[in-house]
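Changelog-adjacent note: as of this version, every example in the card shows the full chain rather than a window. The one below runs 172 residues end to end.
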Amino acid sequence: MKRREFLISAMQFAPLLIIGGCGYKPISQYSSDILGDKVFVDVKIDAVEPDNGVFLKEEIMRTLRTRLDTQVVSNKKEADSVILVPKYHFSYSALNYDNNGYVIRYRVHTDITFDIITKKGKYHKVIHIDEDVGIKASSLTSSIARDTAIHYSIKKAMDKLIAFISQKGYLN
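Full-length structure tokens:
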């Protein structure tokens, strides 16, 4: 009889546990607490690397929409918060050379400055990413590998930006 009483009490307790939950909040909720529902994004396009600036803006907007479930608006006045990228920089350094002196491995250094303006305050974050790339001795292949490394480093920077915003939401 004790086993049956245990099962009945466990069955009564289970819905309370499910309803009460464990206090878990997804990252998007913490980020939403800081950013709000609508975000305006502006990236100051660098004349030296305009393609990377465009990709950076697209990646920020994609990340906000897909990972944080936030609406990106084109009018700054409609926004609950603003994410500005006043500067970004990509540089390259050779790591390895082949027998003929051609670079076969290099590192892409990425620096992106974010200024986030919300109703809860202003935040400034500079994100540094280093991405190593192995290439073959071909100018086309190295150009594609370089662009791929830049895009991958921008995606890594978005991970760090989400972590930063979520941390601010968690602490508020």
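Structural remarks: Strands lie at 38-43, 71-73, 81-97, 103-118, 121-134.
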